[in-house]
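Sharing in case it's useful to others searching the archive later.

Someone asked me privately for the predicted structure of ABC transporter permease, so I'm posting the question and my answer publicly. Question first, with the sequence:
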Amino acid sequence: MNLPTWIARRYFFSRKKRSFISWLSIFSMLGVGVGTMALIVVLSVFNGMEELNRQIFKSFEADMTVSPVEGKRFLASSALLTKLRQVPGVALVTPVAQDNALARYADRQTVVRVKGVDDNYVQRAQMDSAMIDGRLLLRENGINYAVVADGVRSDLSISPVDILTPLEVLYPQSGQAFSVLNPDAFNREAMTVAGVFFIEATNYGNLVLVPLRVARTLFSYQPDEVTGLEIQLRPGTDEAAAKQALQAVVNTTLTVQSRDDLNQNLYRTIRIEKLVVALTLAFIILIASINIFFSLSMLVVEKRDDIKILFAMGATTGLVRRIFLTEGAIIALTGAITGLVLGISICLIQQSYGLITMGTTSSIVDAYPVRLELTDVVMTAILVILVTILTSWFPAQRAAESVNR
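And my answer, the predicted structure tokens:
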């Protein structure tokens, strides 16, 4: 152990009766520790929320989506579908036609988002875990069925057990003057409700799944006309490489987007909130570290005679500066390491055992989602080191120059 470290340890871990300066150093250490622990925990919670949203979207949305650059529909020829299916890693290509429409059930009505899907949609098996009533059935024995979101069921009081009351969907005809009194102004399709699903996302509460042919008839689409193509990849496929290969197949009027691309606004919002909270907690750590500045400044005044003796014994200004820099490092790093250990432990315990629950039975997860990332730990440690240097430098420099006063 070198001399500056030994002297700094003696100052901090003195066995004599603790003075006000010693207690201030301890409070500074605790403040840095609590701030560091809070920063680790909060950042991990935001990481968990981002991962939870990915899991929610993965249970319903496709891996890749082909959509028009302009407009909302395009022609998906059989040749295009064949080329897309031949791309390495592609498992299923599902043509989709969706738009807003009016839904009626018995004496109730509401605006819904109708999504017509191809027959292979059921093969994706994504909706199995989201079904809460009935079954995922769109067509059987020549009969068309609809599967509705739980929000639609609540608005219309739908019962999948009631096979006698159909769900009627209305969509304005193109070229017709809009009038609620004109029965010919709407295309109409009636289907039996086969099941109800629930997805914990606000933009899926008004969704109605119907067979693709029903949606095309309802929207007056041509046989090959769709609003998008949903592509499911095989497990283990490189999404970035698959996206690039798919984009090379489609023309410039179409764009290929991953699941994250479709929800980038939500992820951007989460990251912005994470950044704001991180800056707030970093500011709190800085305020706690200012106590280190005051404690070191008062320690310099208290140890002025010791500093003069060190200079008389041949100590250099650099050695004296390192003593007080080391003293600040001991205070801050002890608190930081304690905070890091506690924060990491809390996150690992929450990940493994879920001690802190969501407090509601309607949530998709029982406990608060937490995901610990190494980058957050490293950035927090770097932040504490920088704050320590910043708050310790000036008192250490003043101690080094005090001999000349």
